[in-house]
Structures are given as C-alpha cells and as structure tokens.
Amino acid sequence: QVQLVESGGGLVQPGGSLRLSCAASGSISSINTMGWYRQAPGKQRELVAVITSRGVTNYADSVKGRFTISRDNAKNTMYLQMNSLKPEDTAVYYCNAHTTTVVRSYMTWGQGTQVTVSS
C-alpha cells in the first residue's frame, strides 16, 4: 500500500507564493501518475496538475503559468510551486497517486492541506 502526507499549506497574501510537498511511503515503486487536486467549500474536487513517472506534466487552465508541479523520485516526494496566488486559489489541496501492480490498480489520497489566499 501507499501512504501520502501533504505539507506546506498556510495563509498567504494575494500575489504571494507557497510550495506544497507530498511525501510518499510504502509501495512507492508501483506509483505511476501523481497529481494535485483542490476542493473549495461547496464545490467539487478539481484537478490542479498531474505528473507522470517520466516527468510529463499537465495543468488546469486556471493555474497555467502560475503553478509548477514536479517530483523527486529519489526522495519519493512531489511538489507544487504556487506563484501569483489569487483568492480563488483558496481550497484544501490533496495529493493523489495512481498505483499499479501485477494484481491490482488503485488510487491513494493524502489528508489534505489548507491554502488560504487573503489580504
């Protein structure tokens, strides 16, 4: 099994920056694509960015040019660098990992970390 732990959330002013981290443990060799999702109160959880095991990335239109997803496979850690933050970026951010073995495929979620953008 895989366990994910997010960190780095907090309160920041509009235009500021934060870097989120997601540390993976367990069956890390079976992890394929990883991603960041977010959910604001009263809204559905939405995809922010994804990254494959080879480093190929994709972003939601709302964050392109401002956010950067990356992963350090040696440290088993994924990151989300968030720049030029806006109030509408306020949400709980969740780390996600897709895992595939010879017997099953499954998805793992972290506990979430709060990001609040406000003056």
Explain the layout of strands and helices.
Elements: E1 2-7, E2 10-12, E3 18-26, E4 31-39, E5 46-51, E6 57-59, E7 67-72, E8 77-82, E9 91-100, E10 105-109, E11 113-117
Parallel strand pairs: 2-11
Antiparallel strand pairs: 1-3, 3-8, 4-5, 4-9, 5-6, 7-8, 9-10, 9-11
Task: Please describe the structure with a list of short key phrases separated by commas or semicolons.
119 residues, seven-stranded mixed beta sheet, mainly beta, four-stranded antiparallel beta sheet, single chain, 11 strands
What's this, in brief?
0% of the residues lie in helices and 57% in strands.
What about the largest sheet? 7 strands, mixed
Structural Rg: 14 Å
Order of helices and strands: EEEEEEEEEEE
User: Strand content of the residues, in percent?
Assistant: over 45%
- Pick out the low-confidence regions: none
- Counted by DSSP, the helix tally is 0
Going by helix content, strand content and strand pairing, the class is mainly beta
Helix content: under 10%
Q: How widely separated are the two ends?
A: 41 Å
Per DSSP E runs of 2 or more residues, the count of β-strands stands at 11
Gross morphology is: elongated
Mean pLDDT: 95
Detailed description of the structure:
By secondary structure, the protein is mainly β. The protein is built from no helices and eleven strands. Strands 2, 4, 5, 6, 9, 10 and 11 form a seven-stranded mixed beta sheet that branches. Strands 1-3-8-7 form a four-stranded antiparallel beta sheet, with no helix packed on it. The chain is elongated, with a radius of gyration of 14 Å. The N and C termini lie far apart (about 40 Å). The mean pLDDT is about 95.
